[in-house]
Amino acid sequence: MAPEALIGKGMEPTFMHHHSHKSPLPRYYQLKEIMREKIISGAWKPGDLIPSERELGEQYGISRMTARQAITELVNEGMFYREQGKGTFVSRHKITQQLIRLTGFTEDISARGQAPATRVLNVTMIPADENVAEHLRIRVGLPVLRLQRLRLADDEPLAVERSHLYFIGCEQLVDDDLEHQSLYRLLEAKYGIQLIQAEQELEAGLTNEEDSKLLHLPIGSPALYTRRTTYTNRDQPIEYARSIYSGSKYTFYTHMMRNQLVL
Ligand code: 16G
């Protein structure tokens, strides 16, 4: 097989194109990002055997040592696991929520080749309290839709999501089938709302009694608390969501670039 150059033609991950040929990233790092992208895009699925060091070396025209370094780092990050005498496999337990494109739970889980599911815990119209009103940029007391969902992948509970939504006609969502449909899809396809961007915060914490029960975890388990505000094409906040992700099952991934100094 002809070696696939690490930089330049044939490279799928878009970030590669931003780098000038003068200052390439280390090869092991590039390979790491390529493999990470394969997992995020779903090309490599949980449980898949990844190519050997030798195969990766041949495919990308790098040494086995370099391939080994990339694999080892992803093993250390929990993306891969090794089985003695069998090879290296894509981990099952960590779900990656990439923080680059705005995607919803259904998309993230489907991309991994798993089956997303939802249990609606509660859906109702309530008056916006101060916090919700501030995030949705509306007046306190306006009726907003509160939606609480347990999210599962292959029947395993992963997250509890508590959303507040406000838009003209949002009360119709109460009658929608939110157990079998993606909220993002409904908003876009049925309500014609264009979701453009989101802000998200992440914080470490421990699960309380209620969430522990829902997530099948011992009380006080490590968890990731997120808050996300999603905006429409008119820059209007439409959803403010607070979610709890099981800490042992989730990785949040972001890729960042340093501004190039122009001297
Ligand atoms: C994400 C968002 C949630 C959104 C959901 C839509 C967080 C904390 N959660 O899980 O705000 O409602 O995606 O997913 O960022 P869906 O389209 O599958 O319903």
Itemize the secondary structure elements and their pairings.
Blueprint: H1 27-41, H2 53-60, H3 64-76, E1 80-83, E2 87-90, E3 95-98, H4 105-111, E4 116-127, H5 130-136, E5 143-153, E6 156-165, H6 183-190, E7 195-206, H7 209-215, E8 222-232, E9 237-246, E10 250-253
Parallel strand pairs: 3-10
Antiparallel strand pairs: 1-2, 4-5, 5-6, 6-9, 7-8, 8-9
The structure holds 2-acetamido-2-deoxy-6-O-phosphono-alpha-D-glucopyranose.
Protein name: GntR family transcriptional regulator
Domain HTH gntR-type: 25-93
Keywords: DNA-binding, Transcription, Transcription regulation
Describe the structure.
The protein is of the alpha+beta class and 263 residues long. The protein folds into two domains: 3-90, Winged helix-like DNA-binding domain superfamily/Winged helix DNA-binding domain (Arc Repressor Mutant, subunit A); 95-253, Chorismate lyase. The protein has seven helices and ten strands. It has helices at residues 27-41, 53-60, 64-76, 105-111, 130-136, 183-190, 209-215; strands at residues 80-83, 87-90, 95-98, 116-127, 143-153, 156-165, 195-206, 222-232, 237-246, 250-253. The strands form three sheets. Strands 4-5-6-9-8-7 form a six-stranded antiparallel sheet. Helix 1 crosses helix 3 (64-76) and helix 2 packs across helix 3. The longest helix is centred in the N-terminal third of the chain and has 15 residues, at 27-41. The two termini are 42 Å apart. Bound molecules: 2-acetamido-2-deoxy-6-O-phosphono-alpha-D-glucopyranose. The site of 2-acetamido-2-deoxy-6-O-phosphono-alpha-D-glucopyranose has 15 residues, from helix 4, strand 6, helix 6, strand 8 and strand 9.
